[in-house]
Each structure stands twice: as C-alpha cells, then as structure tokens.
Amino acid sequence: MDKFVIKGGRRLTGEVVISGAKNAAVAILPAVILSDEPCVIENVPTISDVNICLRILREMGAVIDELGNNTYRIDPTPIYSFCVPYETARKMRASYYFLGALLGKFNKARVSMPGGCPLGDRPIDQHLKAFSALGANYTLSQGMIDLTADKLCGNPIFFDVVTVGATMNAMLAAVKAEGLTVIENAAKEPHIVDLANFLNSMGANIMGAGTDVIKIRGVEKLRGTTYAVIPDQIEAGTFMAAIAATKGDAIIKNVIPKHLESITKKMEKIGVNIEQYDDSIRVWVDGPLVKANIKTAPHPGFPTDMQSQIATLLTLADGTSIITENIWDQRFGYVDELRRMGADITVNGKVALIEGTGKLMGAPVKACDLRAGAALIIAGLAASGVTEIEDIFHIERGYDCMEGKLRKLGADIEKVSIPDNKASAKNSGKAAV
Ligand code: EPZ
C-alpha cells in the first residue's frame, strides 16, 4: 500500500496539463465492443479504473495494443464472451457499462452487480428500466445481472431521476436496436455528449445528447474509428481548487472552458480570479477568500464530484459557507478527516455548514473515496506542517499521476510505500465508487 506525504504551505505556480476524462473513458472503452472493426482511442487517462476496463476487454477476448501517448488500438472482433468476470467487474463501479455494450452487441450480457460504495445507496433500477423498455429480460442472482433479448427494439424511455450511468447505458443498448428510441429526462454531462460523439463517429445515429431528450435511430453496423476522449472537467476543477487553496497562480491546460462554467462561477464568487483562453485557464488568488453557498446538481449545475474539493477551499474562506449535497446521501465522509486538520464543519443530513477558519494543520488522514482523497490532498497542500494520506488507491482510480503534476506546480508531495502488514491491519478496503 502507498500513502502521500505532503509538506504544506507552498504556492502552486506554473502549468499543469489535464488528462482525459475518467467518466468518459470508462464508458467509451466498453462501447468499443459495439464496433465491427478495430478502434483507436486517444487521450485515455492512466488510471486504475481504465486499467480494469482494458483488463475486462482482454479477458473477454479483445486484442488491445498500447500505441503510447495515452493511445490504444482495440480490436473487439475476437470477443467471444458476453460475461464480465465477477472479481474484475466488482472492483469498479462503472463496470455496468459492459451491460449496455454487450446487450447492444450480442443481445445478452452477464455482469456482476456494481460494488457497494461510500456514497450511499447506488441503485440500478433506471438502468434495468431502460433495458426492459428495449425488449430485454433481466434476472439478478448470486450478485450477477443477466440480460437477454430476442431482439432489441427502439422505444421511449423516461428516467424517473436524472442519471448519468443509466443515460449512458440506454444509449449503448439502443444504438443497434431496431427503430427509434427517445430518452427523456436524460443526463447532460459532458461525458454523455462524449460517448454520443464517439458512437456517432462509428456510424451511430444519436441526436440531442447534452439536452434532456436524446433520440437514437438504430443502425445495422458500427465501423471502426479514431477518437480522442475529452479533457476531465473534474480533474481541472480539482486543480483550480488546489491552486486557489495555496493562493497560487497557475495555468491549467487542455481544458474545455465551457465544461467548467458552473465551477468557474462558484470559484469567482469565492474570490478566485480566472481568465479563460481557448483550451486553458489561468487561476490565481490575490485577495481574501469569502464564503459561498453551494448546491450540487446534475449538469449544468455544480457537479457533485467537485463537492468535497470546494468544501476544503471554503474551510480557508472568511465566514460561514453552506454546502447542500443533492445527488448522494453519503458524500460527507471526508469531513471527519478535515476535522482532524482543524476544519470546523457541521453536517446535518444533506447539508454541511463550514465555519471558515482560514487555516488547516497537517495530520495523518485517510481517503474514503476518490473525491474525498482529492479534497485531502488540497487540504494538505494548504495546511501548515505535514499531512499523510492513506488509502490513496481511491485517488489513483481517477487521477492520472496526481503527485507528479502537483510536484511540477511546486508542491512538496511524495508517494511513500507502507509495508503491507502494517497497511492491511488498518485498511478496511471498500469497493470503488
Ligand atoms: C456517475 O455515477 C459518476 N460515475 C459519478 O462520479 C457521479 O458522482 C455521478 O455520475 C453523478 O454525476 C461515473 O461516471 C463512473 P447517477 P452514476 O446514475 O452514474 C440515482 C466520481 O467521483 N440513481 O447519475 O452511478 C442515484 O442514486 C464518481 O467520478 C437511481 O436512483 O450516478 C443518484 O442519487 C462518483 N437509479 C442519482 O441517481 C439508478 O438506476 C445520480 O446517479 C441510477 C441512479
């Protein structure tokens, strides 16, 4: 096991380049299964969730060549299995995208129920509702989901709740279904649009992605393509918060400013200066940080995946800030760890009250999920003294070489190995979110 050791108090300056979007890549890689020819995928982040996707594809028979520079050539034509191995699938939350891709290609799929997670309940009823609407039958037994369909036919799908995963899965299952599928109350995140663009580049007929109504006309075949994954809006937002928390001044490169709008607006309200260019932004702080009221919401609202990071920034602001988490019912797991660093945060259900104390002190802490881990890194960078963060496997699921990028910005951060016997005694090991 490894941990991060951070000596806080250094301003982040210089330049950082954002990697491909985790939440787009973990949907696009399974989507390659739908193609009848090899695909080349570029700007794939080097993160453990992607490694699990590639391993699942290989275990099912796909031939994958690493072409270097975060580019992979994937030939799905030798795939002989529609079953995703239990042990591999349950390690990653997004393994459920293999359900939609395999059903869309083979009219059948067998994937483990997505693992538990520290964000609270994560049902898949809307995924199953979408598959059933297209003509699939499903059974749940021994932790596995089995899908079968004689034939997939386009149909209307109305989601009872805005859901990224089910919107993605509905697109994957519908692209080759006969006739028209209309998805209503669809999620509008940038990674939804990225998956639709990828599928359309293979010859799919998807219109309206990025709005709440997506229309899909089924096609017979999907051809090979070369496609670059969009930059990660949440990684960019995380670095915005880190630069601001250290009162730094840096350029964040390889971003799509439009995807950062809700994050930028809130950062500016807090007193962070942001200048936008075509594919980069400058972030700097030259005055006091002030309180803010944050409510997470589906895109284009403030992203829940930035909630813990901006909360950390607000512990350094003047005044009392309010954070309302509207997507997940247990996404304040990081608060106890921030309290160990001197933060004054009170949580009551979906609401966290943050009394800005203006300072944090280094302490030994533990990441409980991916974004909580990112928040603790930001706290360690801003704190006085040394912070040690354990369970950084959560962070490495979704951030590509975080410590290297931070060091390049001037941070004093190191990855240190902990002897396994010591770590295993402490680590409860939770499933990935
Ligand atoms: C995706 O999770 C992301 N993960 C999450 O990011 C992100 O927090 C979430 O979308 C919201 O933006 C990936 O893309 C791999 P949802 P997902 O389905 O698809 C309820 C990160 O940090 N719901 O949009 O699982 C659900 O309980 C991770 O990168 C149902 O009720 O989220 C939640 O309240 C964490 N029934 C809401 O919808 C369903 O069938 C949104 O969930 C599905 C979801």
Q: Give helix % range.
A: 25-40%
What's the β-strand tally? 23
Assign the CATH architecture of the largest domain.
Answer: Alpha-beta prism
| Shape by Cα distribution | globular
Task: Give the biggest sheet.
Answer: 4 strands, mixed
Low-confidence stretches: 427-433
Strand content: 15-25%
Kindly, what is the distance between the CA atoms of the first and last residues, rounded to a whole number of angstroms? 19 Å
Find the structural class using helix and strand composition.
alpha+beta
> For the record, what is the CATH homologous superfamily label of the largest domain?
Enolpyruvate transferase domain
Bound molecules: ligand EPZ
CATH class value of the largest domain:
Alpha Beta
Q: What is the fold-level CATH name, i.e. the topology of the largest domain?
A: UDP-n-acetylglucosamine1-carboxyvinyl-transferase, Chain
Count of separate structural domains? 2
Average pLDDT, to the nearest integer?
95
Radius of gyration: 21 Å
Number of helices: 15
Can you list the strand order of the major beta sheet? 21-22-1-23
